[in-house]
Design goal:
Length: about 100
């Protein structure tokens, strides 16, 4: 039995999290919505491995290779950053309830 398995699962499988969803240009990571790494890195490092890192592969251990990971504090942005709409979140946020 591991993390997010057995009785420790959400309604859609995986880890339990706050109900709601992210914007279309965001991805969920540890219960928070962030702008997608695929957008932030122009597809070069599409896998989020932390709030401020994006990796070339899905496997976190290979992200210890500096050439496969990109670290940047700006990666903590929400999908609404720079869209000029004050109602869309510009920073990481909990899922939005419908």
């Amino acid at each position: 039995v591991g993390m997010c398995s057995g009785f420790d699962v959400g309604g859609t499988g995986g880890c339990p999290r706050t109900p709601g969803k992210c914007l279309d240009n965001e991805e969920m990571f540890l219960g928070e919505c962030y702008e997608k790494c695929s957008i932030l890195t122009n597809g070069e490092k599409p896998y989020r491995t932390s709030a401020f890192s994006c990796c070339q592969t899905k496997f976190s251990l290979s992200c210890f290779s500096p050439s496969k990971v990109s670290l940047n504090p700006s990666y903590t942005a929400g999908g609404g950053k720079g869209d000029g709409d004050p109602t869309t979140p510009s920073e990481a946020h909990a899922p939005i309830s419908s």
